[in-house]
User: Fold this.
Amino acid sequence: MTNAKKEFIEHTGDRLIKCASIEGEKGFTIAKLDSDFDVKQLKAFLKAIDFKYDSGYGGQELYGMIWYEDGTWSHRGEYDGSEWWEHNECPEIPDELKTNGRLEDV
Assistant:
């Protein structure tokens, strides 16, 4: 069994959180942090996700996104019944795709 709060804290580490949303099955909102959250709202968010769930068997139980101040984000990954947080960075644009054009120039 995995504690959702502990998993969230360990995954985010020292990254500065901009906002977050965690949902259960069928889009049911479990907890959310708006982009202007304060300490009281953060504590309520962490309290709402302080529960255990089975992250390694059966269907996916938690869905969600975390946006960070540095422009990166995390989303819930899932494969064959296992689920986890996955951190993402915007990929570098390949040189062959870099141009100086804009839509207004067309």
